[in-house]
């Protein structure tokens, strides 16, 4: 409990008051603006936290050194205990002292659609009264409060219909928690922030600790930074509503982000923008490592590196630059990383056309963008304004080099705040790099031509090498190979998923077949290959097709086996076999089934050098047909092995296998008939394996390219 610690509190207060006096004051003297730090989302025992507001507010002020704190109790508690709302209101009045501390009071709407805090409304809200999101939005209108999207993680609760735009909501929901909660550390929601901005929401970045313990402001250094004229309730409310805010993991960094002389949180008319950045931190050592300027879709369009000593108390990090946006609706925010790893995310600056219409999620919806392949140009038109629009037109065209290709137009009507899907069938008549443009014609400003959105499309040739990926046998990678198909498309191949038995028809026109080990257990698909499938694969390889087989470890599971893959190897006439074992890596006193692998010298000659190591999870090793060590010879190439600290082990004791004491073979290729067979210890092409910090994607691309060239 906090009571009875008056002496300790007084000692802490003496130190913190000195720090508070200098925080942001120099900036205020020069410009009339000051930086203030706090949070607007926390709890006490009036809902599901501890202690009471009369203990939380002074703790946040005197112990944590916050300039402001919002206590937002769960609304349904407030309705069940209206006297608590009255007590919270009185406490907020009591502890608000202009120039020293501002106490906000509010409620949190905890609904399946998502959680939202509302501060400084005259009454509480509750999921039991405001039943749905639209009910909450209607209730918020005219209340004068400010709301925020809370901890907007897709796995925590709903995301407000994927942040579908709401005209009324956008007037009151002004903020979004880019960071939230200190247990055990700040949870980052930048992806949700990007999604909300992309769909038309104008929300600023904040960070809240969502305290449910007696640690308001001390649970972590995370804060919401606010730029305001003075430390008063009215000035802070004006700053929060104007979105002059940023989410920070540093307790006192000061960030200035402006465009054409106007602060973050403002909307500029489309045209050339001169951006200005000024970052400083009163703590020595808290310098700027780098600053990313991020824009629509989360793309980093510029990275500004610090010199090592910029951004601290003695030398601010200052940059200015000019950009000319080329889309009809744009937003820009800063993502700042300090040398100690703390991340700061600012509110955006919007740059848009004078029209209230915008397009989101523009895409070419086709399984594979090939010359002549029919698909749909799709997107959503959003009416950000309060007036209905009748007869809006979206004109589509494409450009391939200097050649312009007319496509067509779509006409639609939009109610105020509406989001309307549009689509237009299209088959690109050329291959190569094509840019699709979608020009929005607002009937209220027919002469304006600047509301244009572009979509780059790589259109592949009409005829492509076909790679079939088996998912018809409860394969280890079943359901997780879609990313691999995108990788194949980027490499100029057509990836096709096989969902049933492997037949001559399913292999028609294919250059390669990729099969992962079937998994045992309950499945709606077979986990064995019948004689007809073995015959189809044998004929495929004999005719010059490439077969890639990916195994799995026995993983101490008696039901796991690579016997089905070995049946395929036997049927096609390969001398390789999958060992019924597990490749393991020693990590000190521990053993891991996730291993780093590398190409052999022969593998590098065959596939080229990789920039990053290959990673295999729960892999088996590759042996000879007599389960001896596999060695290279004419027609057989050992492509990859484990590291010096890897070995193979028969974890379920069943075998058959060859136990490598070190550097087990994990990938090899053999010439069989007119084709090639590749055996690898695990499917390194699932969505979990194709990561930017691994060489798996480059390995698979190079492997497929080599097989197709044989």
Task: Describe this protein's structure.
With 710 residues, this protein is of the alpha+beta class. It folds into 4 domains: 24-249, Metal-dependent hydrolases (TIM Barrel), CATH 3.20.20.140; 255-352, Immunoglobulin-like (Sandwich); 357-459, Immunoglobulin-like, CATH 2.60.40.10; 466-709, Rossmann fold (3-Layer(aba) Sandwich). It is globular. The model is unreliable at 1-29 (pLDDT under 50).
Structural category: alpha+beta
The parts where pLDDT drops under 50 for at least 5 residues are 1-29
Biggest β-sheet: count, sense, barrel?
16 strands, mixed
The end-to-end span amounts to: 75 Å
Question: Averaging pLDDT over every residue, what do you get?
Answer: 92
CATH superfamily of the largest domain: Class I glutamine amidotransferase (GATase) domain
User: How many H/I helical runs?
Assistant: 15
How many domains comprise the coordinates?
4
What is the CATH fold-level name of the largest domain? Rossmann fold
Tell me the CATH architecture of the largest domain: 3-Layer(aba) Sandwich
Report the count of strand segments: 41
Under CATH at level 1, the class of the largest domain stands as Alpha Beta
Give me a quick take on this structure.
With 710 residues, the protein is of the alpha+beta class. The strands form 7 sheets. The protein has a 16-stranded mixed beta sheet that branches.
Secondary structure: elements and pairs:
Blueprint: H1 6-22, H2 25-31, E1 34-39, H3 53-63, E2 68-74, H4 75-80, H5 82-95, E3 102-111, E4 114-119, H6 133-140, E5 146-150, H7 160-163, H8 167-172, E6 173-180, E7 187-188, H9 190-198, E8 204-208, E9 223-228, H10 233-242, E10 245-248, E11 254-259, E12 262-263, E13 267-269, E14 273-280, E15 288-295, E16 299-305, E17 317-323, E18 329-338, E19 343-346, E20 349-352, E21 357-365, E22 374-383, E23 389-400, E24 403-414, E25 419-427, E26 432-441, E27 452-459, E28 466-470, H11 482-490, E29 494-498, E30 510-516, H12 531-542, E31 546-550, H13 563-572, E32 576-578, E33 582-587, E34 590-592, E35 594-599, H14 601-607, E36 614-617, E37 622-624, E38 636-642, E39 646-649, E40 665-672, E41 675-680, H15 696-709
Parallel strand pairs: 1-2, 2-3, 5-6, 6-8, 13-20, 28-29, 28-30, 30-31, 31-41
Antiparallel strand pairs: 1-9, 3-4, 4-5, 6-7, 9-10, 10-19, 11-12, 11-14, 14-17, 15-16, 15-18, 18-19, 18-20, 21-22, 22-25, 23-24, 23-26, 26-27, 32-37, 33-34, 33-39, 35-36, 35-38, 38-40, 40-41
């Amino acid at each position: 409990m906090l009571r009875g610690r008056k002496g300790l509190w007084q000692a802490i207060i003496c130190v913190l008051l000195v720090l508070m006096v200098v925080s942001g004051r120099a900036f205020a003297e020069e410009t009339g603006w000051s930086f203030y730090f706090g949070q607007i989302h926390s709890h006490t025992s009036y809902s599901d936290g501890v202690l009471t507001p009369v203990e939380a507010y002074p703790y946040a002020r005197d112990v944590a050194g916050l300039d402001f704190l919002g206590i937002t109790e769960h609304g349904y508690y407030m309705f069940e205990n209206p006297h608590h709302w009255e007590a919270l209101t009185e406490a907020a009045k009591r502890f608000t002292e202009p120039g020293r501390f501002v106490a906000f009071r509010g409620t949190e709407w905890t609904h399946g659609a998502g959680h939202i805090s509302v501060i400084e409304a005259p009454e509480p809200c509750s999921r039991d009264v405001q039943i749905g999101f639209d009910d909450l939005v209607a209730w918020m209108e005219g209340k004068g409060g400010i709301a925020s999207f809370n901890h907007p993680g897709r796995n925590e609760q709903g995301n407000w219909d994927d942040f579908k735009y709401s005209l009324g909501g956008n007037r009151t929901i002004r903020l979004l928690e880019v960071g939230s909660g200190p247990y055990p550390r700040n949870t980052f929601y930048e992806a949700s922030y990007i999604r909300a901005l992309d769909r038309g929401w104008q929300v600023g970045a904040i960070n809240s600790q969502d305290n449910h313990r007696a640690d308001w402001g001390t649970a972590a250094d995370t804060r919401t930074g606010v730029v305001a004229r003075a430390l008063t309730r009215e000035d802070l409310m004006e700053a929060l509503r104007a979105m002059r805010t940023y989410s920070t993991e540093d307790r006192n960094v000061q960030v200035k982000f402006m465009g054409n002389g106007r602060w973050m949180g403002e909307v500029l008319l489309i045209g050339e923008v001169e951006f200005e950045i000024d970052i400083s931190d009163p703590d020595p050592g808290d310098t700027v490592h780098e600053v990313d300027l991020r824009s629509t879709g989360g793309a980093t369009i510029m990275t500004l590196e610090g010199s090592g000593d910029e951004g601290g108390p003695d030398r601010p990090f200052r940059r200015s630059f000019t950009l000319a946006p080329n889309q009809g609706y744009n937003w820009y925010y800063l993502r700042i990383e300090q040398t100690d790893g703390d991340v700061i995310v600012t509110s955006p600056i919007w740059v848009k056309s004078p029209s209230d219409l915008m397009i989101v999620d523009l895409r070419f919806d086709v399984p594979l963008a090939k010359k002549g392949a029919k698909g749909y140009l799709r997107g959503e038109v959003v009416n950000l304004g309060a007036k209905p629009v009748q007869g809006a037109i979206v004109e589509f065209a494409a450009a391939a080099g200097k050649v312009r290709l007319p496509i067509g137009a779509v006409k639609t009507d939009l109610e105020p705040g509406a989001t309307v899907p549009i689509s237009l069938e299209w088959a690109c008549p050329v291959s190569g790099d094509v840019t699709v443009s979608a020009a929005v014609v607002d009937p209220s400003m027919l002469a304006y031509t600047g509301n244009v959105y572009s979509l780059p499309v790589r259109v592949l040739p009409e005829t492509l090498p076909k790679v079939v990926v088996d998912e018809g046998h409860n394969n280890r990678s079943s359901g997780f190979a879609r990313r691999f198909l995108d990788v194949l498309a980027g490499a100029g191949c057509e990836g096709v998923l096989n969902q049933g038995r492997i037949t001559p028809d399913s292999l028609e026109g294919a250059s390669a077949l990729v099969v992962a080990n079937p998994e045992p257990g309950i499945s709606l698909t077979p986990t064995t290959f019948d004689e007809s499938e073995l015959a189809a694969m044998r004929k495929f390889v004999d005719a010059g097709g490439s077969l890639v087989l990916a195994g799995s470890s026995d993983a101490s599971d008696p039901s796991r086996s690579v016997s089905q893959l070995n049946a395929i190897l036997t049927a096609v006439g390969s001398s390789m076999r999958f060992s019924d074992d597990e490749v393991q890596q020693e990590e000190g006193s521990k053993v891991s089934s996730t291993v780093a692998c590398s190409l052999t010298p022969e593998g590098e000659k065959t596939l080229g050098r990789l920039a990053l190591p290959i990673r295999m999870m729960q892999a088996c090793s590759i042996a000879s047909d007599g389960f001896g060590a596999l060695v290279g010879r004419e027609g057989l190439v050992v492509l990859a092995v484990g590291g010096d600290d890897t070995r193979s082990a028969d974890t379920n004791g069943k075998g058959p296998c060859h136990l490598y004491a070190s550097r087990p073979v994990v990938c090899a290729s053999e010439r069989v008939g007119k084709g090639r067979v590749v055996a690898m210890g695990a499917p390194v092409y699932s969505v979990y394996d194709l990561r930017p910090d691994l060489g798996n994607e480059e390995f698979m691309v190079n492997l497929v390219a080599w097989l197709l060239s044989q």
